[in-house]
Amino acid sequence: MKIVYSKVANLDLKEIYSFISQDSIKYARREVELIQTAIKKLKKEPFIGKQFEESDDEFTRELIYRNYRVIYEIDHQLKQIIILTVHHHSRLISNNPAFKDDA
After folding, report:
1. 60 touches 47 (CB < 8 A)
2. pLDDT of residue 61
3. Which of 98, 103, 43, 100 lies closest to 74 in space, CA to CA?
4. Which of 20, 40, 57, 77 sits CB 3.0–4.6 Å from 28 for a disulfide?
5. What is the pLDDT of residue 103?
6. Quick count: other Cβ atoms within 10 Å of Cβ 93?
7. What's the average pLDDT block by block, 10 residues per block, for the chain (103 residues)?
8. Is 100 within a domain?
9. The predicted structure's pLDDT at residue 100
10. How far apart, in whole angstroms, are the C-alpha atoms of residue 64 and residue 25?
11. Is the residue at 103 inside a domain?
12. Beta carbons within 8 Å of 85's beta carbon, 6+ residues apart
């Protein structure tokens, strides 16, 4: 399976980097790399994450990594995993742009 990042997910990673880099560029880079490493595990085990509770679709799932909820969809037809968002757990999921109609 191929991993594809949505625009929102790419922006999430940039924002994570930007926020942490205010204190340390080294740790900002490391945090983003660790998140991406966790996401890469989905290639071999796409169902490792639990079903996303806000969805009835069994192919929309979430992987919990540290303080983040990596929400993704499994697309068997295209043989890819689409990373919808990398969401910090302290924020309301309802405010996430990945779940707005214009995303």
Report:
1. no
2. 96
3. 43
4. 20
5. 46
6. 16
7. 96 96 97 97 95 90 95 94 92 73 53
8. no
9. 67
10. 24
11. no
12. 6, 8, 9, 12, 69, 70, 71, 96, 97, 98, 99
Residue 27 in tokens: 């740790």
Q: Is residue 101 part of a domain?
A: no
Residue 3, both tokens? 């991993």
| 98 located within any domain | no
Looking at the structure of the chain, the number of domains it has is 1
Find the domain containing 10 and state its range: 2-92
Q: Would you tell me the crossing angle of helices 25-40 and 7-21 to the nearest 10 degrees?
A: 150
Provide DSSP, 7-38.
HHHHHHHHHHHHHHHTT-HHHHHHHHHHHHHH
- pTM, two decimals, is 0.88
Those residues with Cβ within 8 angstroms of residue 70's Cβ, 6 or more apart along the chain or in another chain? 35, 38, 39, 49, 62, 63, 64, 83, 85, 86, 87
Instruction: Report the first-to-last Cα separation within the chain, whole angstroms.
Output: 24
